[in-house]
Each structure stands twice: as structure tokens, then as C-alpha cells.
Design a protein that fits this description.
The chain is an alpha/beta fold. The protein contains 13 helices and 16 strands. It has a single domain, classed as NAD(P)-binding Rossmann-like Domain (Rossmann fold, 3-Layer(aba) Sandwich). Helices cover about 35% and strands about 15% of the residues. The strands form 5 sheets. The chain has a 7-stranded parallel beta sheet with strand order 3-2-1-4-5-9-14, sandwiched between helices. A 3-stranded antiparallel beta sheet has the order 7-6-8, with no helix packed on it. The protein has a two-stranded parallel ribbon with strand order 10-13. The longest helix is centred in the first third of the chain and has 21 residues. The chain is globular and about 60 Å long. The N and C termini lie far apart (about 50 Å). The relative contact order is 0.14.
């Protein structure tokens, strides 16, 4: 099949491109080689060099309809990854996120609705961010979908999700696909928009479509230059430079960390399955890992002299917990993740050690930017 990957020179897109090529598919990549991901010399970045000369590459932008026209010609499948991805950054670069994520997707759908093409299926990378705080239970087992946490309470060190009616601490549960969609960041809102547009328009056009709600993806190839996303990459850079590591809140926030090869395998399973027509799936492990556990594990692996401080700082828009219920994708297409967090971190850290680590990847500047906007406390 002829497969187009927008954002295909990025972390997930590049891995997907290589795996699809191995399976005998013809791959086209459309990517703008963003400096935030690839650095100031993008054509020399690890991510770009992985795919260079291995597939057809179009240096273009999803905000430009002529680039989309060139890219979709003759394609059977489109995997739409191109997006701005920083949750915190999205809260003050609103127009940039909307233009790339929403308008870029709208231009693609305009072409599919109004031009001749051979596209049979579209997959879009969605995110756990669309769920906001996700799914919780009270003592009686009643389901709650809490809104954003109260900033005043967090400044007093109350970070847990509280039932406002009773004052009790709610217990996090695995978030299934039928959970309430109520994103707490502009990034999450744009991902919800992408899902809704693609699933609605493709259904009306008779094109199969799926939204893949990725959890926290990590692994070799994750950008070490992007200070806005990828907690394992950010921590690794700090530890290898023996810089102090600031753990926000009380360190007990949890995330569902899913290894890159599992994400690629899930995506290919959805590409190849005829059962996937117009649907949405979580892609994670179903396991929750605390941020302090991540930090301690990485510090030990790197033998770092960095200090770890649990500061009580917090970012407006961050969620407390979220981990995926993975039953649907298993039951529908038989997919299960294979790589445990311990295995994945070991593989990731070995790759990081082989890379040139910059002294300053802009992480402190990114926090300063958020602080200036009143989004970091």
C-alpha cells in the first residue's frame, strides 16, 4: 500500500515509517522539520537521518494546502501525526496550536471531500489529554469525571483530586474510551477537534478512520531537544548534566508510559485490520507509574549526581493521574502491549547514552515562560 505519514520525521512517525517500509509498503513523509523537535540544524538531526533516503520526503507544512495536495496524490492510507504537542506550551501559544492541529487537519479533510483521491483509511494520533483528569471512583463506587484542580488548593499542597460535594479524595480508575471527553489544555482541545473532524468527515465520505489515543509514548529517538514534552527525555538531559531535578507537586502524579515499538505495532494493527472502520482506541499499557519513580529509576541508571527535589510547584492544566483501560483494542483487533516500563526504560537510557547531550535544552526557559504567563506556580 501507499501510505502517507504527516509528521513522519518525528519520533513516532519515523519509527512507523521504518516499520512500514520493512513490511513492504511505500511510504511518503510530509514534515516541516520543526526546530523545536529537530534542533537548529534539522537535516542533521537523529530523527531526520533515520528516514533520509529511505522513503519519499516532502519538506512541507500541513498549514499549506498545496503541500497536502502534493502529499496525498496516489495514497491509500494517511496517518496524521503532524501536530504541536506541548500541553503547557499550548496554554500560551494558542493560535499556533490551533492553526497547526485544527486548521492543518481541516485542510486535509477539505481535499478529501472536494478532490479526487485514492485514500481508503485515515488514522489520527489523538492523546490521553482529551480525557482531562480521566475517570475516578468515590467510596461508594460511583464514577466521577472531575474538572481541573483548584489552583488555590494546590498552592496549599492539596494535589489529590477531591469530590467537591463530599470533600473526600477520589480514587483513580483506568480510563476507558467511553469516559467523558473534557480536556483541560488547549492541546487536548485541539486533539478532540482532530478526532471529531476526522471521524465525522471520513464517515460521511465512506473512508475508514480511527483516532488512536496515545498515552505517554517514550523510547529511542524521542527528541532530547524539545523542552516542552517527553518527561523521560527532559529528566535524562538533566541527570546526564548532573543538574538539579525539580519534581512538581508531591511526585505522586502518575502516567501510563507506553514504549514506542508497542505504539507502532498498535498503529500498524489498525492500518491492516478491516475491523477498524470508524472508531477510537486507547494505546497504552494500562499501568500507572509515578513521576518520582521515573526520576529515581533514571538517576540510578545514569549514576547521576543530580539532586532530586520534590518542590510542590505545579503547572496550570496538568492532570493528576491518568492510565488507560486497554480492553477495547485487545477485544476488537487482538492488540496487547509487550514491553514493560522497566524493560523500556533500560532500552531508552542505553540509546540516550549514545547521544550527544546538550548542556541546555531550554527546559528552564520553558518553565520561565510559563511562570511569566501565570501558568507555573
Amino acid at each position: 500500500m501507499n501510505i502517507l505519514i504527516s509528521g513522519g520525521a518525528g519520533f513516532i512517525g519515523g519509527e512507523l515509517a521504518l516499520k512500514l517500509l520493512e513490511k513492504g509498503h511505500t511510504v511518503t513523509v510530509l514534515d516541516n522539520l520543526s526546530a523545536q523537535i529537530h534542533g537548529e540544524m534539522p537535516e542533521e538531526s537523529f530523527l531526520f537521518l533515520k528516514i533520509k533516503d529511505k522513503c519519499r520526503f516532502i519538506h512541507g507544512d500541513v498549514r499549506n494546502i498545496s503541500d497536502w495536495k502534493q502529499a496525498i496524490e496516489g495514497q491509500d492510507i494517511i496517518v496524521h501525526y503532524a501536530a504541536e504537542t506541548g500541553t503547557g506550551q499550548s496554554m500560551y501559544k494558542i493560535n499556533e496550536y490551533v492553526q497547526t492541529n485544527v486548521t492543518g487537519t481541516a485542510l486535509l479533510l477539505d481535499l478529501l471531500a472536494n478532490e479526487k483521491h485514492a485514500v481508503k483509511k485515515v488514522l489520527v494520533a489523538s492523546s490521553r489529554a482529551i480525557y482531562g483528569e480521566g475517570k475516578y471512583l468515590d467510596r461508594a463506587g460511583k464514577v466521577h469525571y472531575p474538572g481541573s484542580r483548584n489552583a488555590e488548593a494546590m498552592q496549599q499542597g492539596i494535589f489529590d483530586v477531591i469530590n467537591p460535594a463530599s470533600g473526600e479524595k477520589l480514587q483513580v480508575a483506568a480510563t476507558d474510551e467511553e469516559s467523558k471527553i473534557h480536556p483541560s489544555s488547549v492541546y487536548g482541545i485541539t486533539k478532540q477537534n482532530q478526532e471529531d473532524m476526522i471521524l465525522s468527515v471520513c464517515k460521511s465520505l465512506g473512508i475508514a478512520a480511527a483516532a488512536l489515543r496515545y498515552q505517554n509514548v517514550y523510547g529511542p529517538g524521542q527528541s532530547l531537544k524539545n523542552p516542552y514534552t517527553g518527561i523521560l527525555s527532559i529528566f535524562s538531559t538533566l541527570f546526564l548534566n548532573n543538574q538539579a531535578v525539580n519534581i512538581f507537586e508531591d511526585g505522586q502524579m502518575t502516567r501510563d508510559f507506553v514504549y514506542i515499538t508497542d505504539v507502532v505495532d498498535a498503529t500498524i494493527a489498525c492500518i491492516e485490520s478491516e475491523k477498524v472502520q470508524n472508531d477510537y482506541f486507547n494505546v497504552g499499557t494500562g499501568q500507572a507509574t509515578t513521576v518520582i519513580e521515573v526520576a529515581n529509576k533514571l538517576k540510578a541508571i545514569y549514576g547521576s549526581e543530580s539532586s532530586i527535589t520534590i518542590s510542590g510547584n505545579f503547572r496550570i492544566g496538568d492532570i493528576r493521574h491518568n492510565f488507560a483501560d486497554m480492553h477495547k483494542i485487545k477485544e476488537r483487533i487482538g492488540f496487547e502491549t509487550k514491553v514493560s516500563f522497566s524493560e523500556g526504560v533500560a532500552l531508552f537510557s542505553e540509546w540516550v547514552k549514545s547521544q550527544e547531550i546538550e548542556k541546555d535544552n531550554g527546559y528552564e526557559r520553558s518553565l520561565a515562560e510559563m511562570n511569566k504567563k501565570g501558568l507555573f506556580k
